[in-house]
Amino acid sequence: MSELVWRGVSVPSLERCRITEDASGVRIASTVEGESDCIYELSATVGWEFRSLVLRTDARTLVVTRANGEWSVDAAPRPDLVKAREVDISVSPLSNTLPIRRLALDVGQSAEIITAYVRVPELTVTVDPQRYTRLSADEYLYESLDSDFRRTITVDDGGLIVDYPGLFEREDPGTSTGRPSKGDRQSCGRQDG
Length: 193
Known about the structure:
Blueprint: E1 2-8, E2 14-22, E3 25-33, E4 38-44, E5 50-56, E6 61-67, E7 70-73, E8 76-77, E9 86-89, H1 97-103, E10 110-119, E11 124-136, E12 139-144, E13 150-155, E14 161-164, E15 168-171
Parallel strand pairs: 9-10
Antiparallel strand pairs: 1-2, 1-15, 2-3, 3-4, 4-5, 5-6, 6-7, 7-8, 10-11, 11-12, 12-13, 13-14, 14-15
């Protein structure tokens, strides 16, 4: 089991994340603290292919699943997401690990993907085209293909985000201090990528 902490830079937040990997797959339990609490549980295959997401805010719960290439959101079929392979959660850098691990790009390779973008706190799910390019052993260029947003993100050996410039920085779980200060907190709002 791994425990990780990320601090939001542009939107003050603190995410505490537990990742469990075993023969049955990957299970993630995470809490994003800000003005409103966002809690999610995500499951994926051993190869980090998305299976399900349950995301809760103070207002409601969102359930997203993908099975046999078919998506559902709150039990309603979502054929518009058929080309998506994973979710991208607006308030969490963890979701970038899903395509990084699944694609297993060599340095210099790139891939265009579609994600199911989950906007928090609205809990809407939309199609989001993206491109990942592996620049070095620990750097990827992330590009949104429907906007001009792009960032060079740094990852560790497991493909987990270390630095997402302007958005998230990973901290040592043993040195992180509680919630963001009340004066700095904002709701778990949109953050690209």
